[in-house]
Amino acid sequence: MSLPATYLQMLSTVTGDGELRLELVEKAMPTPRSGQVVVRIEAAPINPSDHGVMFGWASIAEAKSSGTGPGTVLSAPVPPQGMRVMKARVDQPQPVGNEGAGTVVAAGDSDFAQSLLGRIVAAMGGGMYGQYRCVDATMCLPLHDDCTAKDGASSFVNPLTALSMLETMKMEGHKALVHTAAASNLGQMLNRVCQADGVELVNVVRKSEQEAILRELGAKYVVNSSSDTFMSDLTDAIHRTGATLAFDATGGGGLANSILSAMEAAAARTPGAYSVYGSIAHKQVYLYGGLDVSPTVLNRGYGMAWGVAGWLLPNFLAKAGGEVLARLCTRVADELKTTFASHYTDEVSLSETLQADVVQRYNAKTTGQKFLVCPQHQV
Amino acid sequence: MSLPATYLQMLSTVTGDGELRLELVEKAMPTPRSGQVVVRIEAAPINPSDHGVMFGWASIAEAKSSGTGPGTVLSAPVPPQGMRVMKARVDQPQPVGNEGAGTVVAAGDSDFAQSLLGRIVAAMGGGMYGQYRCVDATMCLPLHDDCTAKDGASSFVNPLTALSMLETMKMEGHKALVHTAAASNLGQMLNRVCQADGVELVNVVRKSEQEAILRELGAKYVVNSSSDTFMSDLTDAIHRTGATLAFDATGGGGLANSILSAMEAAAARTPGAYSVYGSIAHKQVYLYGGLDVSPTVLNRGYGMAWGVAGWLLPNFLAKAGGEVLARLCTRVADELKTTFASHYTDEVSLSETLQADVVQRYNAKTTGQKFLVCPQHQV
Q1: CA distance linking residue B147 with residue B120, whole number of Å
Q2: Predicted structure pTM score
Q3: What is the ipTM for the molecules in this complex?
Q4: CB contact, 8 Å: B310 with chain A?
Q5: What is the DSSP letter of B4?
Q6: Fewest C-beta in 10 Å: which of A127, B38, B160, B242?
Q7: For residue B28, what are the contacts with CB-CB under 8 A and spacing of at least 6?
Q8: How many CB atoms lie within 10 A of CB B238?
Q9: How is A174-228 classified by DSSP, letter by letter?
Q10: B20, B66 Cβ separation under 8 angstroms
Q11: Closest partner residue to B305 among A264, A265, A312, by Cβ?
Q12: What is the distance between the alpha carbons of residues A121 and A128, in angstroms, rounded to a whole number?
């Protein structure tokens, strides 16, 4: 198989003069070392977790694009506070795209790398918004024969996040979960996993259409944060399920506080669950996203046994170790077209991904909308 | 030794109609069971951690006292939000006073209980603001012969809190500490322990007098949150010490956020400590007090590897287990008159503790001021 001498890769740079630039850069085709393979990336999703590296703290509402084709450049101003936070990445171009899938077109001489030649694999590790990507063969998940690259594009971030939420629950001794922004692609997947595993899940949404999506999926507990009865609905659901762990995709505002307050109120209904310092069981909310960029506000009216923390998939996987990761990946490959199926509303080329009007659409993070980058499409 | 038939104990009750009552109640003298002892309580400190059980969410600024001697009653209104939070304790009188010391005046028939007869012991477990207290002998710490009850009154809460902060640091893999309200009795003790153990400690205070107290004690890192250069001073100190763990006594407002932001800024100065998701090392702030009752506000500008959580000594000790507790208690008894010495500005009787003007004084939590309840003083 003959490969081109160069390929295009998307890079994000914060410049010293307060601008974010997202552009395509021509790179030399790498030669894989012994344990490496070169994957021709055919499909890579735009996940909310990609936005951080792509856009950082730039003001995306003010983004503009210039140029055409491979010369398309997206630029946006970065406010002073954002520059302070992103100090460590100034003038250091960052490859973007956490995960993707495609065909192995070159391999180093190790047996395992050679065994992947011609196979369709999913891969993670950044830099997937590009035409090719050289990765360690051990970072690849070979797909079953009936799966396409599009089927496998989202094999890691959402599936491993959903499964890792359940692993976290077990490792930290909780027995049920609360999840916010629960009608998201990830939220729907989490519902399928929890139903399969017999784990009770309290879904928090903010619109009645989102309630309907989850009820349709068979979700037992769905509460709407826009409803006048939200706090009592949430307390009831937490009381019934015994959930003392939540994963919050919104991050900012008062939602984490509301969840901890509802957990406290649920404990107050339970004989023996309460001491003079408040409820006894540890109540934890992990913020794994930042849909709401406003500050997180905690009134602390829930005793002393509580925590709020950031949660990031790679950090969890590093702590859980290789055996857990291998077990989770095997399950993803086996259930890729059922439990872990993803659906895309839009397919875009590398240059379309940089057009300001397209950026505004995927940056809106509308429920049900999901973009797939197709690096082999005409740039 | 002949004991009176009854004794006075202080109880705190939240009534269904929104009032907090703190009063002395006559109780029958208990007969100790096999492994128990009766301690004549001679000295018991008023710690910030006692205020929660004593006053709950009542509006103490509006507290009034009535009656005299054993009939003194303190009452204060409880606002509606406080009633919701304290629902589980309505109409259930709570004994108050976490720790104290005194003479063992009666003992059950177990060898260990008998061995304590006549000894001066420190004890914890609540209900210490009373003339007598029956406790399990295993909950008593016999003092060395040269120690009085006043020397031993504060053997648990502050000493075990200071030592447990260091244990937490070791258990969770941190190497240095940040502490706020650092000129407090506890803060001074923590400085002595850290100096003895060679652990770097960043002291955060809000007044120059408090800075002076700590410098006098030999503290190396003292930063003043009222200074214009607070954030850069704090970042410098965190960068030098490598502290990624903080214990915050204020709880509310922006201090926890400032500490996490300074930890992030310190990491950004350190090669290899930073990824596109922010700093890599986990940064943790434990809120162990609530000197600032306003909400905790977190702007989350410090990546994903961070946590904020409540921290309560009994919960930590339960998790750490009996061997750790025994090790820490032995150290406290050995160093009671040096590292763990406490000083009191006021000694009050049980009834004086209930007088509104006295309550306003100890509720002010002024640095350097510390009250000792002496239940054997004339009520």
Answers
A1: 8
A2: 0.87
A3: 0.86
A4: yes
A5: -
A6: B242
A7: B5, B6
A8: 27
A9: --EEEEESTTSHHHHHHHHHHHHHT-EEEEEESSHHHHHHHHHTT-SEEEETTST
A10: no
A11: A312
A12: 13
